[in-house]
Write a structure and sequence with these properties.
Layout (H helix, E strand, L loop, with lengths): L1 E11 L4 E12 L4 E5 L6 H8 L7 E6 L2 E2 L5 H11 E5 L10 H6 L9 H14 L15 H13 L5 E5 L7 H18 L2 E5 L3 H4 L4 E6 L2 E2 L2
Parallel strand pairs: 3-8, 3-9, 6-7, 7-8
Antiparallel strand pairs: 1-2, 1-4, 4-5, 9-10
Length: 221
């Protein structure tokens, strides 16, 4: 489903050059749940952003579902990302002025769907994460765990084949973190969603199919 070949990412300024990723070769099978771990600053989020087509590598190639995404135009890249990928962030990235249902509908605004279809899909996504009774609430009226559930609903509303999760339990206590993790595991088991998750939590990582470790931008396991 995902193939990275000889990925290198270099950040340059006028005075300094920083190697963020070095010679990353990684394959993720369809339906796999992969964890990425490593110390802060080792390149985990950079790698996830490259997989998610939010950032481009300085060197190397990436293919998703056997399509060479580095050859896409910006427009095609945005369409492909919207259809294939769902994103979950540690800090939720919800819009405080929008109700829960409207937050979840957001990815569908870039598709040819009617308002009725968007509402139905968003309602179904919220049911999956146990928040169908909160659709008219605003993010500020929710707990951290509930906001992360809304973020997951938004990630899955377009029925993506791949979910990319950056520290999805990082801001939560252990009990709520386990609940969020169980939702992700159910998506993987029941719907065959491919998931790549960055985490600092060894216990969460051990629940996934495979663990990749990074250190100073290089893959060490």
């Amino acid at each position: 489903m995902i193939r990275l070949q000889n990925i290198e990412k270099v950040y340059r300024t006028d005075t300094i050059q920083t190697l963020a990723l070095n010679s990353i070769n990684l394959e993720v099978e369809k339906g796999e749940f992969l964890s990425i771990m490593g110390p802060s600053g080792c390149g985990k989020s950079t790698l996830l952003n490259i997989i998610g087509l939010l950032d481009m590598p300085s060197k190397g190639s990436i293919s998703i579902d056997e399509q060479a995404t580095h050859k896409f135009s910006d427009k095609k890249l945005a369409q492909f990302r919207n259809k294939k990928l769902g994103f979950i962030f540690q800090s939720y990235h919800l819009i405080n002025d929008l109700q829960v249902l409207d937050n979840v509908e957001l990815p569908l605004l870039y598709r040819d769907s009617t308002a009725k279809e968007r509402k139905q899909l968003a309602t179904e996504a919220l049911e999956k994460v146990g928040l169908s009774n909160r659709i008219k609430h605003f993010p500020s009226q929710l707990s951290g765990g509930q906001r992360q559930r809304v973020a997951i609903a938004r990630a899955i509303v377009g029925r993506p084949e791949i979910i990319l999760a950056d520290e999805p339990t990082g801001n939560l206590d252990s009990a709520m973190g386990n609940e969020i993790m169980e939702i992700l595991l159910q998506l993987n088991r029941n719907e065959g969603t491919t998931i790549v998750m960055v985490t600092h939590d060894e216990n969460m990582a051990q629940k996934t199919h495979r663990l990749v470790r990074l250190f100073d931008g290089s893959q060490v396991q």
